[in-house]
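Notes from hallway chat w/ T.B., transcribed later so I don't forget. T.B. wanted the structure written out for a chain they're using in a teaching module, and asked if we could keep both sequence and structure tokens in one place. Agreed to drop them here.
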Amino acid sequence: MKISLGKRVLTVLVVVSLLVLAFTNLALAQAKEPELRLAGSWPFPFSGNAFAPEGIGVCWWFAYEPFAYFVPATGEYIPRLATSWEVEENKLIVTLKDAKWSDDTPFTAEDIECAVALIQAMWQSSYAIADIEVLEPLKVAFVLDLVDRPVDHTVIHSILTDAAITSAAPSHVYGQFLEEAKEVAALGREIWVMERKGEEIPEDVEKEFDEKSTAFAEKVFQFNLMKEVGYLPVVGTYEIDKMSQSEMLLKLNENHWAAENIKIPKVSFKRWSSNDFVWASLVAGELDAAHPSVTKDVVEQQLDAPDSHLQLVTVSDLGEFALIFNHENPLLQDLNLKKAIIYALDRAAVRDIAIWHAIDVSDYAHGVLKSMEEAWLDPDFLETLTNYKVDREKAEATLKEAGYTKGSDGLWHTPQGEVVEFTISAYGPYSDWVLAAREIAEQLKAFGFKVDVKIIPDGMQGPTLMAGDYDTAIEFGTSWWGFPHPHTGYSRLYDENGYLAEVTRFPIKEKYNTPWGDLAPYDELVKLQQVMDNPEETKEQVKKLAYITNEYLPIMPFLEKVLPIYYIDGENVTGWPAKDDPIWSLAPGAIERLYILLLSEGQLRPVE
């Protein structure tokens, strides 16, 4: 039987159509490859250099991993790049997971040796690590030396949970800097030891360190991995696929030790330009999870909407919002003025304006989180502290007693006759911080201070405050991220390398009058570290630091932040933990760790 030309043509057309359909379906399937959609920030142009001023941004925890995660709600360590660890006298010995970098290079103890040298040289920190001993390819010893002070678990905790120590400087990439890094690090540690011993630093030693560390930093800053290497080697769960200024896409690191468990091969980020933008993206179904600050009525409306898949979990962010003071400004060195500011301020009103789900503010400014106050500071002790409940009459009396006067213009003037004038800086992308700054400014203007709000541009918060280019600013206060203990918060405030110590310029080594005599907060922080294995002595030391913080006001806390975690369940991804699961407490400080744990355990998965 002969087939007509028309039928042959029809048959070919059908086959071609089927092939086109098959390829189209395949393309659609590939285009819809499952991904977790998040929001964050990253430097652009992107160099991939962890030691550059802005690092690698939001992909940090996806690219790098610590030895372990710590879950504050349970006190549990979850191993990541370590299989085990033990303390022998002054050594922390860690056995490493058999892992690989994304470029097939084995992950070994030499990577850790390189990272620690770079960290000490570039960041001038982690000097408690006196040496690194490479015992085996997969075993490393951290030799700890705190200069006649006991090795405590906060140092060990920081080593175990710091992803930079394991991952920031793979030796096959940064090895070219290793010897010079060791030289600079050794000089930096020499100075650190002398400071700890209370010795005066010789000028020639300080000059040599400044010159060598500056030259080394400039050299490392110029290193662009994306140009010189062509990619960013990662030992974490995901590596960079592609990016622009507004979007970043990560793909699964096929070499990751948990790759077989991971059911979502891609993670994408929209740039976190503002809380409003992130919230709009969530509501539009363009993101799967985020933690923007949004007003109560807007959230409730969305949660109650028919067929809404939006879910909300709240967990203490283990941090507080504070108004910080630049103590290089002579005006703000006056304790009477700082006390008047806090007396004049209705902090509860600021909380209601800035972030409705925050924990009620304390009437004190002692540096212990409100949610932890009862556990650390008994009522009898609190009665010995100055209570800063809003009291504008007391604020006026405090100023008048110190020689301040209120002019016919309604403005307060210093004892020297100058108008009390200052700015409140707030980071633009954080709308809750901007709202808080504006509310504080309005209250203080109504009281009689000349106050303006100054917006810090995207990416410039740290550099601006580090440079001292501010009067007062909204910042995180004595936060307890990672390790929920007063030592964590007070280290931020009173340690030589503490972030708040650096940006506030508060004199941490000066002595202040207390019921226990004249005490320097830096010295008391050191003593707290020494007694942390003794609960009763620990509480006594916390009281001393709480007293100094409350009475001398290096910062002014105004709320304890609760982290609102919004997620869409059942549209794109599913498998989120129950709302009472303690694993949510892993989120404060770096919420990406929570996402990574859920991904690498295979719990988060695409909707079928």
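Follow-up for T.B.: The radius of gyration is 27 Å. Might be a good example for the class.
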